[in-house]
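Ligand: nicotinamide-adenine-dinucleotide. Inputs:
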Amino acid sequence: MDLWKSIVTDGFEQLLFIQDRPSGLKAVIAIHDTTLGPAMGGCRFWHYGSEEEAVSDALRLAKGMTYKCAISGLPYGGGKAVVIRQPGQSGNEAAFRALGRIINRLGGLYITGMDLGTTVREMDWIKAETDYVTDTAGSLGAAGDFTARMTAYGVCLGIQASLEEAFGSDELRGRTIAVQGLGKVGYFVCRYLHRKGACLLVTDLHTGLVEKAVKQFNAIAVETDDIYRQDCDAFCPCALGGIINERTIPQLRCRIVAGAANNQLAEQHHGDMLHRNGILYAPDYVINAGGIIVTAAEIAHRSGEYARRRVMNIRNTLNSIYRCADSLGISSSEAANRLTRQRLG
Ligand SMILES: NC(=O)c1ccc[n+]([C@@H]2O[C@H](COP(=O)([O-])OP(=O)(O)OC[C@H]3O[C@@H](n4cnc5c(N)ncnc54)[C@H](O)[C@@H]3O)[C@@H](O)[C@H]2O)c1
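Predicted complex:
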């Protein structure tokens, strides 16, 4: 990996390599762009195939956070912390407190929160050393899966905006939606769509989650590899990133791709490829911003209701992107990127 090249090309402000010998902490903090405000982005605690993989994950995710905050009208930039997990290692208090001290020394330039592999417990350890952390015990985001619920709510509103754009009506009744991933967000997405009368095709690696969705939402179970080739109105990825790629695009038989997963496009040009194939794509960092909107509300000491109203705005943002794409004859992913870059100045 050519580190400097990535840093220069993508305009990163800082990349910190962190070591704390006594606790064994090995971490990276990437700060992408603080034009609009302090860098915000969760702390991932993950096992990587190599250190390079960990660094590139931090860089990619931090940049994504800049775009997500900017397009959502939030006064924050993008950052990410990645704590490298050794096989079989669980989080230890000393390591996360050491990370908290480093974050504190940054003096508010970077605010962390929960992400893959971290929970309220790790955030509480960080909180012992710094105030620049969210998702701690009793906070707005951590209580009752509120973050996941709001992410799902934003995704469902985004699906409706996309239905309106594609079919001229946002009615969910009678529409068929294929949902990939029935975890924290996917579950709430299915619940909302089912209540509004949509038919669901579902898949997950965990059969228990699939069985639950079949039972609770009358969903039809689909094998994991078959989810892409389902005849449906919308495909809703709520599992992994990189699932829109050279292999899957030719299989898609949907009119819309709109879901919660981060970094859905394996590469940027796959957004154009969807466009050429007549598939409307709801850019991931726009439609899945519910979580970060909750975090921003938490930092500003605002209520859950305030956050919910801000999440409703995702629909307007998507509409503007679709208008821009239509008028310029470009893909929605390109339109979203252009609008975001305009906001960053
Ligand atoms: N939690 C949030 O508030 C939030 C916010 C923004 C974006 N996201 C993104 O949304 C996605 C889902 O987040 P989550 O919090 O629900 O995660 P989660 O870990 O709770 O759920 C993910 C689910 O996907 C399933 N899965 C993994 N690989 C799969 C595959 N190949 N086929 C089918 N299912 C598969 C897993 O078994 C799991 O049940 C992630 O990409 C995440 O980054 C989440």
